[in-house]
Design brief:
It is built from five helices and 31 strands. By secondary structure, the protein is of the alpha+beta class.
C-alpha cells in the first residue's frame, strides 16, 4: 500500500514538473512570431492589413502603433479572436494624424501580463494617389475593335485600361508617360464605361472613366449542320485529343469545341501577356495575297447534329482562303513567339509586334520560322492547310492585344492606323 502511495506521489510530482517545464518553455523559449509584417511597410490613404500570430503562445493582447516625429498613435489594440490567430484592421494614416513620409510601425504582443515581444517595421506613408493626364484617346471604339491611349502620370505607377471585364496593361515610352493598346470584348455593352486605372507603388489607386464611346457591332450568326460530315471531322477530333478512343461523335465534338477551345484560348492569352516593350510594326498590316474572306471576326456559330443544337462557339478572327497550300506572309514586322501545334488551331504561328500587339496564323501545313526569329512584313512564314479543326484549306488570321483577339479589319486599314494609332507615338 505504501508503495502505491509513493508511486502516485511520484507521478503527481512528475506531472507538475512537466507542466512547469512546459509553461516555462512557452514563456521563455516559444516566442510568437508575426507573419505578413511587410504589409505595414507601405501605407497608402487606406489599407486593410491582416497579421498572423504563430504560435499563439498565450498572447493576450496585441497593440499596433505608429511612431512619427517622436509621437505615437495607436493603429490597433485588442485581443486575438478565440478560434483564429489572425487579426485584420484598417489603416487610414490621415485619420491617425500621420503625415506623408517615413514612419515606424511597432507590433507589441503581451503574454502573461508581464512579457512583451516587439516587432518593428520601417514604413513609408503616402496618401496621395497618382494624377492621371490623358494626352490622347479615341472618340469612339467598336465592339470587338481596338483603341489606344497615351497617359502622363505624376509618379511611377502600374497603369492599365479596363474594359468589358478585361485589363489591358501599359508600356512606359518615356519618363512617367505610358501608352496602352486595348481591345473591346465582343460582348461589351455600349453602355459600359472604359476605365483608366493607375496604382502607385504604395497602393493608392486612381480610376478615371475614359469617356470613349463604344459603338455597337453587328455580328452574324450561322448554323452548321454536322451530320454527314463525320468521316471528315472524326479523325480531326481524335488527333486533337491525342487518339482518345471515345467513338461518340457528339461527345467528342463538344469536348473539342468547348473544353479544348478554352484551353487553347488560355494558352493564347498566356503568350499574349508577354509582349516586348518596343515597337516592331510599321504601317498597316497586310492580308494574305489573293485571298478571299470566307468567315469574319465575331461570328456566332451554332453547331447542330440532326437538327439538334450540340455546341456553340464564337469565331475570333478572319478565315482567308486562296489556292491549296498558299504561302502565308507575316502581316508586319515582329518576332516569332510561338510556332507549334495549338489544338483546334492546328499548326500555329504567333508573331509579337510589341506593346501588347500580336498576330496569329492558324491551320498551317508547316512553318518556315521558329520561335525567336525576327521576321519582316511580307516574309513567308508558312503555308495554308487543314490542320486543327479546319473543315477546308484556309488561314485563320487573328490580331491579339494583350492576348485577346480583336478584329483584324482595323489593322488592315492604313487610314485607321494613321488616325487612331500613330498619335500614340507622336511627341
Amino acid at each position: 500500500m505504501k508503495g502505491i502511495k509513493k508511486l502516485i506521489r511520484t507521478f503527481v510530482f512528475l506531472a507538475l514538473f512537466a507542466i512547469i517545464l512546459f509553461t516555462l518553455y512557452n514563456l521563455f523559449f516559444l516566442k510568437p512570431q508575426v507573419k505578413n509584417l511587410q504589409a505595414l511597410e507601405k501605407l497608402p490613404r487606406k489599407k486593410e492589413v491582416s497579421l498572423v500570430i504563430t504560435p499563439k503562445a498565450y498572447v493576450e493582447k496585441i497593440t499596433v502603433l505608429a511612431v512619427q516625429d517622436g509621437k505615437e498613435v495607436i493603429i490597433f489594440e485588442g485581443k486575438l479572436p478565440q478560434r483564429t490567430n489572425e487579426i485584420t484592421f484598417t489603416v487610414q494614416p490621415k485619420k491617425l494624424g500621420l503625415k506623408d513620409g517615413s514612419a515606424k510601425v511597432v507590433v507589441e504582443l503581451r503574454r502573461f501580463f508581464i512579457l512583451k515581444d516587439s516587432f518593428e517595421v520601417n514604413s513609408v506613408v503616402d496618401t496621395q494617389p497618382p494624377r492621371v493626364n490623358i494626352t490622347y484617346a479615341p472618340y469612339t471604339v467598336l465592339q470587338g475593335g481596338s483603341g489606344g491611349i497615351k497617359v502622363k502620370l505624376s509618379e511611377p505607377a502600374q497603369l492599365y485600361v479596363e474594359v468589358g471585364g478585361r485589363k489591358f496593361r501599359s508600356y512606359e515610352v518615356s519618363e512617367n508617360t505610358y501608352i496602352v493598346l486595348f481591345g473591346v470584348p465582343v460582348d461589351t455593352s455600349p453602355k459600359d464605361a472604359i476605365k483608366v486605372v493607375a496604382v502607385d507603388n504604395v497602393g493608392n489607386k486612381t480610376v478615371i472613366p475614359l469617356g470613349t464611346g463604344i459603338k455597337r457591332n453587328r455580328f452574324q450568326s450561322f448554323k452548321i449542320e454536322l451530320k454527314g460530315k463525320e468521316q471528315l471531322i472524326l479523325p480531326k477530333l481524335h488527333a486533337i485529343l491525342g487518339g482518345e478512343q471515345e467513338e461518340d461523335f457528339v461527345k467528342l465534338f463538344k469536348k473539342v469545341n468547348e473544353e479544348v477551345r478554352e484551353e487553347n484560348e488560355k494558352k493564347i492569352a498566356q503568350i499574349g501577356s508577354k509582349s516586348s516593350d518596343r515597337r516592331f510594326w510599321k504601317g498597316a498590316f497586310i492580308q494574305m495575297k489573293n485571298s478571299k474572306v470566307i468567315s469574319k471576326y465575331g461570328e456566332k456559330r451554332t453547331y447542330t447534329y440532326g437538327g439538334k443544337v450540340i455546341s456553340k462557339s464564337r469565331h475570333m478572327g478572319y478565315d482567308l482562303a486562296s489556292v491549296k497550300n498558299a504561302p502565308v506572309p507575316a502581316s508586319n514586322h515582329g518576332v516569332v513567339v510561338f510556332a507549334g501545334d495549338l489544338g483546334i488551331y492546328g499548326n500555329t504561328v504567333i508573331i509579337d509586334h510589341g506593346y501588347g500587339l500580336m498576330s496569329l496564323y492558324a491551320h498551317l501545313a508547316d512553318f518556315k520560322v521558329k520561335e525567336g526569329d525576327a521576321v519582316k512584313k511580307g516574309q513567308i512564314i508558312g503555308f495554308t492547310d487543314t490542320t486543327g479543326l479546319a473543315f477546308g484549306d484556309h488561314l485563320h488570321f487573328g490580331i491579339l492585344i494583350d492576348g485577346y483577339e480583336v478584329t483584324p479589319l482595323e489593322w488592315w486599314d492604313p487610314k485607321w492606323i494613321r488616325t487612331r494609332i500613330e498619335p500614340l507615338f507622336s511627341e
